[in-house]
Each structure stands twice: as C-alpha cells, then as structure tokens.
C-alpha cells in the first residue's frame, strides 16, 4: 500500500503568495484613489469660466449702476 503524505508546504506557499498579491492590489488601489482625489480637488479649486454673454451683461450692469450714481 502507498503511504499518505501531507503537503502543507504548498498550502503555506499559496497563502503567502495570496497575501502578497492582495497587499499589492490594495496598495495600488489606495494610491490610485489618493491620486484621483487630489486631481479632483485641484479641478474643484479652479474657478469656472463665465460665458461671454454673462461677462458682457455684467459689464453693462456695472456701467448702468455707475451712470445712475453720476446723475
């Protein structure tokens, strides 16, 4: 009859490999989420450009206000 062998070394090696791969994936996801967050924060800080018509209407409003004060 054959003898039964327990190969626990392969199991331990597979568990260690799993944790190494899991740690690498976790680190990459953390890095990418941090990078995405800082990029979004920088985009939020920029003031959005106003439309040309809005700028012109604001200038007209300011001129009319200044004209009323002068009279």
Series of H and E elements: HH
Q: Shape from CA axes?
A: rod-shaped
Q: N- to C-terminal separation?
A: 115 Å
Could you tell me the radius of gyration in angstroms?
33 Å
**What class, by secondary structure content?**
mainly alpha
pLDDT under 50 segments (min length 5)?
A: none
Sheet with the most strands, sense and barrel status: none
Q: Estimate the strand proportion.
A: under 5%
The tally of domains stands at 1
> What multimeric state do the chains show?
single chain
> How many H/I helices?
2
Estimate the helix proportion, in percent: over 70%
Number of strands: 0
Arithmetic mean of pLDDT: 85
Describe what this molecule looks like in 3D:
- The structure is a single chain.
- This protein is mainly α.
- It has one domain (8-70).
- Helices cover 80% and strands 0% of the residues.
- It has helices spanning 8-45, 52-70.
- The longest helix is centred in the middle third of the chain and has 38 residues, at 8-45.
- The radius of gyration is 33 Å and the shape is rod-shaped.
- The mean pLDDT is 85.
Secondary-structure blueprint:
Elements: H1 8-45, H2 52-70
How would you summarize this macromolecular structure in one to three sentences?
This protein is mainly alpha-helical. It has two helices and no strands.
List keywords for this structure.
rod-shaped; about 70 residues; 2 helices; about 80% helix; mainly alpha
């Amino acid at each position: 009859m054959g003898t039964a062998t327990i190969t626990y070394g392969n199991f331990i090696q597979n568990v260690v490999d799993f944790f190494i791969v899991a740690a690498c994936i976790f680190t990459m996801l953390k890095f990418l989420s941090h990078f995405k967050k800082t990029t979004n924060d920088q985009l939020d800080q920029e003031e959005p450009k106003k439309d040309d018509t809005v700028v012109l209407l604001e200038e007209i409003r300011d001129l009319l206000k200044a004209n009323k004060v002068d009279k």
